[in-house]
Amino acid sequence: MQTDLVAAIQTAAGLDALEACRVHALGKAGAVTTLLKTLGKMSPEERLVQGPRIQGLRETVATAIADRKGALERAALDARLASETIDMTLPADLPPAGTIHPVSQVMDELAEIFADLGFAVATGPEIEDDWHNFSALNIPETHPARAMQDTFYLDPNSTERTVIDEWAAAPPMVLRTHTSPVQIRTMVEVARRSSGAGEPIRIIAPGRVYRSDWDATHTPMFHQIEGLVIDKGITLGHLKWTLETFLRAFFERDDVVLRLRPSYFPFTEPSAEVDVGFSLEKGKRVIGGSDGWMEVLGSGMVHRKVIEACGLDPNEWQGFAFGCGIDRLAMLKYGIDDLRPVFESDVRWLKHYGFSA
Ligand code: PHE
Hints:
By secondary structure, the protein is α+β, with helices and mostly antiparallel strands. The protein is 40% helix and 21% strand.
């Protein structure tokens, strides 16, 4: 009996089989337990002989079970260790990291360049009222310039008023069609602060603007940067120097040349459209040199009517302003040829053109 029990224990294939062996031998109705129970009915002489034998059997079986259990557990652990090894020499999977959008990158670059020239950054609301976006900029209601920019008007009958404007606003409200209303807000604030006396102004205003347009070079939302300088004795010469200095710093080339073409904006007089010279390198247009010209921004001397509308004396204060498409600057500097993906948030595109943080 002992040999059979021990043999079964030693060949038990797993912990479950071993437990079955234990119940079979040492359980309540097990073979060894049954034998132990017979001791009570034996004569003292017989018990003296059988007692140690049966106890010995119980111990042998218990020891065999404990040994087998240890062996099985060690084998299970070895198998687990073998299957779960980690190769510490393999490269780790890094969590995906975001990139800086080229437009954000360009906005940062512009803010830095203009900070060196003493310009502060100003902002204004994207939902703008008609007065700041048009009227104060010398664009009266009947003026064709309003049709020039495909304006998004907010529904005046809408009961949804989810946007709380910190500035007093009067309908009709529009999505601002350019950053020029920030000129107005800045000058009005200066006039208010100085009780109409005025003070020098040097600001840039980067931000989102909206026009109803959609093709390879137009998106309904895009970015502009406005520049405004107000002081005493400001001339077109200051404007040209500022633009030249800014574009040379931005494109990181000293051979950037500008061409000012007479133009028309209701809020500047005289007005000039500014072209930047490019050269052809392997069929691609590269900013610098003067093989050809590309329009990059609108500018001019701030119209005296605009200065007046803001509550400043145009006989005392003059200045220049300019407005430039940021997305276009980004495309020119970083070789992006279609504007639409700039706003489509395709991770592959962002990985390709984005900047690491
Ligand atoms: N606001 C004009 C536009 O969006 C650009 C501009 C700004 C022109 C400032 C002159 C002065 O087209």
